[in-house]
Amino acid sequence: WKKEEFRTCNQTPFCKRARSRKPGSCSLIAAEVEIDDGDLTAKLLPKINDQEESIKPLILRLSVYQDGILRVKIDEDQTLDPPKKRFEVPDVIVSEFNEKKLWLQRVLTEVVNGDSAPSSVVYLFDNYEAVLRHDPFEVYVRRKGSNGDGGRVLAFNSNGLFDFEQLKVKKEGDESWEESFRSHTDSRPFGPQSISFDVSFYGADFVYGIPEHASSLALKPTRGGDVEHSEPYRLFNLDVFEFIHDSPFGLYGSIPFMISHGKDSGTSGFFWLNAAEMQIDVSNSEGGRIDTLWMSEAGIVDAFFFVGPGPKNVMQQYTSVTGTPSMPQLFATGYHQCRWNYRDEEDVENVDSKFDEFDIPYDVLWLDIEHTDGKKYFTWDRVLFPHPEEMQNKLAAKGRHMVTIVDPHIKRDDSYHVHKEASDKGYYVKDASGRDYDGWCWPGSSSYVDMLNPQIRSWWAEKFSLQNYVGSTPSLYIWNDMNEPSVFNGPEVTMPRDALHYGGIEHRELHNAYGYYFHMATADGLLKRGNGKDRPFVLSRAFFPGSQRFGAVWTGDNSADWDHLRVSVPMVLTLGLTGLSFTGADVGGFFGNPEPELLVRWYQLGAYYPFFRGHAHHDTKRREPWLFGERNTELMKEAIHNRYMLLPYFYTLFRKANTSGIPVVRPLWMEFPGDEATFNNDEAFMVGNSLLVQGIFSEGVKHASVYLPRGQSWYDLRTGFTYSGGMTHKLEVTEDSIPAFQKAGTIVPRRDRFRRSSTQMVNDPYTLVIALNGSKAAEGELYIDDGKSFEFERGAYIHRRFVFSDGKLVSLNIASPPASEKFFSTDCVIERIVLLGLSNGKKGAVIEPGNHRVDIESGPLKLRGGKGPMFLTIRKPNVRISEDWTIQIL
Amino acid sequence: SVSVSPSLVRSSLGIRPEDLKYFKSDFIKCKDGSKKFSKAQLNDDFCDCPDGTDEPGTSACPGGKFYCQNAGHTPRLLFSSRVNDGICDCCDGSDEYDGRLNCTNTCWEAGKVARDKLKKRISTFQEGVSIRKKEVQQAKEAIAKDEAELIKLKNEEKILKGLVQQLNERKEQIEKAEENERLEKEKEEKRKRDSEEKSDDGEKHSTEVQHDEEKHSTEADDENHESIGLLDEPSVDQDEAEVTDDTAAEAENEEAVRPSIEEINQMVAVVDEDSTAVDTELGHNAESKASTVEEMKKENHENTEDLSREELGRLVASRWTGENAEQTKEMDHGKEEQPEDNHEAHDDVHDEEGDGYNSEMGEDSHKYDDEEIEERDGEDEYAEEDHDDSSPSYTSDSEDQTDFSDVTTTSSSSWLDKIQQTVRNILQAVNFFQTPIDKSGMHFTEAAHVRKEYGESSAKLSKIQSRISSLDEKLKLDFGTEKEFYSFYGRCFENKQNKYVYKVCPFKKASQVEGHSTTQLGHWEKFEDSYRTMAFSNGDKCWNGPDRSIKVRLRCGLNNELTDVDEPSRCEYVALLSTPALCFEQKLKELQQKLDLMKSEQPQIHEEL
Hints:
A: 14 helices; 30% strand; B: two-stranded antiparallel sheet; elongated; disordered C terminus
């Protein structure tokens, strides 16, 4: 962590200026308010137009979309010939979203109490209205029929901090526009062009979101009240060496999306689609309002208001704009084994065979940069990897996959075909003077492919074809690292802001989206490689709104210490809240050597990350699971087995995320929005709606305090013991596992047999664990498809709901549409049903159709783990997973 | 669904032949005693026993074991996770029986390959076992010899100590007498001079200067000798009583000078070390530009502002890789560790001095015994070791080699006799003149004789003592249960990989040599894993990593051959050493049995093919 190499707000002129503005300093009013093209439009003008410096009016456009989404755009008036068009981030909003626009027909004019000027009111959603207050200019969402603050949900510019610096043309010799930081100078050819404004969340207890920071789940205030000096939350994609935990400093990715939640008012969200550097202040105001100040260096206002009212509604609303997470292949939901670096083919073979020797499943083996020939991506070091295809095929024969790294910096080496083509075709990002930008990264002198240009992305995607990527096979997938972009000799270890992209766009305008486009192009490459039939898997470090559509994201170069284990939970949860469901932290910590206990605890927690990968820096000791003695091997193996056991449940949750945007792992408050005790809990989390997991974040812990949310009781995942909800339990903690519970009233599908990898599990039978609630009822779901293709999008999948009530378990088809165009079938059966919370004495059950009688006996909750308490178990019902049936307990 | 194959097979599926009996009864116990299951539950594809007893032939119980007979090859126990998983694991294909996959039986072919390999291994072992036996025998003899030598040396030491003591006493007597005599003489002269005129002040001054020079030039001389010399001038103005005090003072003075010279030596050594360190660093890095960055970095610490763009790029990259930064860090380390380095340097200096001393004496000792092997050999070895370059395989460390070829030849007792005789003669001769002091001065020759004899004997003594302590050290080492690693003592094994030469010296250290620079991979720690691994630890520091270490795995081979040096984890090396020491007879028997077993299972299956 080299603090002095990164800017503070004070060293960032736009941030310093915006932060020093006083409330009410915005003097704009909305004029010429009208309905145009289904939108409400207005001009924003200074109330008293200063004669000396004429300020050009801004154009405001307010649109309403289905399901409670308000969009507000503010930009310069193009008819007044601004020096250039400001950057609007393309290819983030999904095309389907545009079809959800509601064409406004009429606007109500109303004088809100106390105002002298009118406000324009339009319909927003069921119970919500959007209000444009003319003077002073303000936009807010309120509950229908309410007048005054009581009904407000969220508001824009209610503190009058809105400011919009308009583009100017630099006059000759005016050097004051240049901005310097350390040895770097930014030419800023259009002068200051920042935008800032305030957003208020009403009735909010906490706000969340705006990753990526290594900090708490509930965002701590950065200003006001009793806050000591703090930087704002920074959103600027940076490659930060040895980042520290608990800091508002911006890391690898940026999502300007904030969610507020309050016990009484529910959940709402605000999203600003803008790819320039952003800084966000949070301050608590009286009366349950949270005020935030949003500052960006460039771009336009393209803001989305989500009314909620529940947390899951907000998730659906946000992902209807930016897209839901793509459906991963089944293999990608298993365990990934990575290290910088698995050195050569022999190393790969040894590691792979050790997993088999210890009967530890894993799905993917990763190769970091050293596999390439001189850090030239798409090539192989032929000394270390003389037979890459054979190597991959050997893994594939065991149903395993390989991932290689492909970064965006291209070695400036004329003998390198990618460089040759890119420079010949002019595909590189240019420096301020128009030459190919030349920065420094792993290969040394490098240039960066301009991923903003769709044509260049398409060219890039072709590089992944099996013909072009020599040595690749269909079982090879990709890892995008360093795509912030990381430039070792650039300002703040990234690209200069005045570098130029396609269409004359300055790097400052799209910086935070560069990695996104790179990720997009890579995922597209894999899609093309498989003729659109194979789901891509691409892991990216940098991200932006919408990255969920292209693959997984991890939290970057963390460290092997307990604090980093702890902060991984709020980091992963925050990513989930902002649409990125398929995420995880490097298990074990990238830098440094974890003590065996830390490593074991990390495996135990990491097994519940949606993306579960062990990774390590090349200076660290080897840390594959079998290297720490028999007992620790056993513990890590058990943690990995746990993950594989729960794969059917995880896969069902990935599908849920794919259809609704609701993340795989969720903050407790998402499942228990009325339980205040959960609001700032970021040590525990929910996996889906059924499992609660509490991390253990310090050494030698014998006891842990675990808050179990109210409303239901909870079954210990290992012992089946019940604990009541709505209270904190002081639990004994052993080395065997971290505390984890199944919520009463849920059914979790499992697969209890272990294989080398998820690939061999496809024909294995299922186990259902039914955790009954007080009324002896429970429900759960299971989603299955072929695990790799896109046929599921045409209906080739199985989706069942299991409902237990009145002593009867029913399997229902909930696939939609029910009449599928395509069909997916499986012979898989349910081999075991464990009933938690049912008294003994049951001897059998009858299966319909067929009037087939099966035994109920007592059995363990888990097959491994020695002697434990026994529970009623339906033995070998062997009902097919794809069919309708009932099992009546006698 | 996963249906289990016909019940015919089911009852024996996946069960080891020796366990078949266990599953005969109608009710069968889980092996862990947790419960019982019925025969119908055996291999019914549902896990009843937590330990998997009831499902030897299916994948229903995690952690269960499946037995495949693999007729024609070797039987195998598989994890239950492999049963019907779509991958043929057993060469007889018996693990895939659910009809989804047809595995070809490859046991005979695979078995043949395995058998051939095994045969080869057996023949290696056969030869290896006999080499090992020989070596064990030799080691035993050598150790016996060492022990005998040790006893002999200790005996000699005892005798020699006595002689040296006697000589010393005698020498002191003589010297005291000489002094007295001289003082007497001086007094007389003084009286004479006094009676003449008191005039020579300036002259006295010049003598003092002369004395200073003398002091410097006689640095390496015998201390006593020197102090006697020193007494000459100052004593002029003093009376007898003060003489002894003054001697002591001079001795102190002498000591005060010594450390300062040592300090100088140390400084020189440190400077050398430093320059070697720098060389090493440069040697490590082929890119000279990087070193510029490092220098810049060193100067500016973390101030990166003044770096060129390339330098900045390299510097930032180095944070992740540690490659370039390592140099700075290691150099820094070098500085931090100067005290330690000094210490080593100090030791080296001592060694060098010791060597010098020995060799000087060694020359003298020629006069005694021409049969003795020159100490110079050892010195040469030392020099070679120091430069650590182009030394042949099996170089040995100086001291040890020296020791091997040192004084302890068979004729050694004769030299002791000689000395004893000589000393006896001297002492007798001296004793013959009952009064030690005789104004005639006739026994000056006698005194010289005693001094010389004393010097030579005490040199001999210290040599013997050093030999004793090195033998003691050696015999304390762990040479294995049958002393089979005795032959490793004093030897080094080398392996060249690209630009590096790896050098493993058992019981001493292991290093990586690149050109003129040497990186210590570790100092000898111990044998591990019942003498299957040699561990060297606490090698040179590693940036951002552990101190370097290496584990050398041992396996049976006909020659001592170092291979497969590898660094699987940063700065943690492994290597393989083939050696006859690991060719155990027991293991040979096992291999032969295994081969017999494989041969005996000539399968019907093969005939079917």
